[in-house]
Amino acid sequence: MTIRNDQIRKVITTPYGGEHFAAFFAEIRPYVQRIEEMRHYERTAVRGAGGSVPSLYAWEGGTEAFERLTETFYAKVLADDLVGPLFAHMDPGHPRYVAMWLAEVFGGPDRYTRERGGYHHMLTRHLGKAITEPQRRRWVSLLMDAADEVGLPSDPEFRAAFAGYIEWGTRLALANSQPDASPPMQAPVPRWGWGVAPPYTG
């Protein structure tokens, strides 16, 4: 096998390998295991698109991870004296619907928009509920406890992005739930990314 210097230059000077990386790696794949350093690496379930940064949805573990999170979370919610009454008549499918919402927000498939009506539907679930700040804080706290319990990624970059959306979203839900609120009735489902800190890969 011969790898020209110009091929190597194209790969190492293009961010994430760019369009040339796949062809380059196909050429060297048979020899990778002979490189001592490469033997220290293991495959992971995290996949990006080519050389791109994976979405928060992918980093968390996809749909199944969100469903584990919401099932555990809503079991805690229903048993809680402060927020439980808000969900006393909860649809049995509610944990799955919230998992769909979170998955879409964090970069996953747009199932909540297609199957549940997107932002408008989510907004109507909160109108007139008169959520209090102590209830909001308890909701957030229980969700973070559930995230730990089901083993969501614990790296600070992921948790900062995850917590950032939860804080933002719950504060909007609180405001929109007040009797005098007049929020916009139509908007896209928000899409949340890594923000300032990209995923830690060191």
Descriptive overview:
The chain has helices at residues 5-12, 21-32, 56-60, 63-78, 94-105, 111-116, 118-124, 133-150, 156-176. Helix 4 (63-78) packs across helix 5 (94-105), helix 4 packs across helix 8 and helix 8 runs antiparallel to helix 9 (156-176). With 202 residues, the chain is mainly α. The chain starts with a helix and ends in a 26-residue tail after the last helix. Helices cover 52% and strands 0% of the residues. It folds into two domains: 5-40, no CATH class; 56-176, Globin-like (Orthogonal Bundle), CATH 1.10.490. This is Truncated hemoglobin YjbI.
The radius of gyration over CA amounts to 22 Å
Any idea of the CATH class of the largest domain? Answer: Mainly Alpha
Structurally, how many domains make up the residues? 2
- Bin the helical content: 40-55%
User: What's the total count of β strands?
Assistant: 0
Low-confidence stretches: 7-17
Helix-strand sequence? HHHHHHHHH
What amount of the residues lies in strands? under 5%
Average residue pLDDT: 84
Biggest beta-sheet profile: none
Structural class: mainly alpha
The CATH superfamily name of the largest domain is Globins
What's the total helix number? 9
Keywords: Heme, Iron, Metal-binding, Transport
InterPro entries: Globin-like_sf, Globin/Proto, Hemoglobin_trunc
GO molecular function, one term: heme binding
Organism: Thermomonospora cellulosilytica
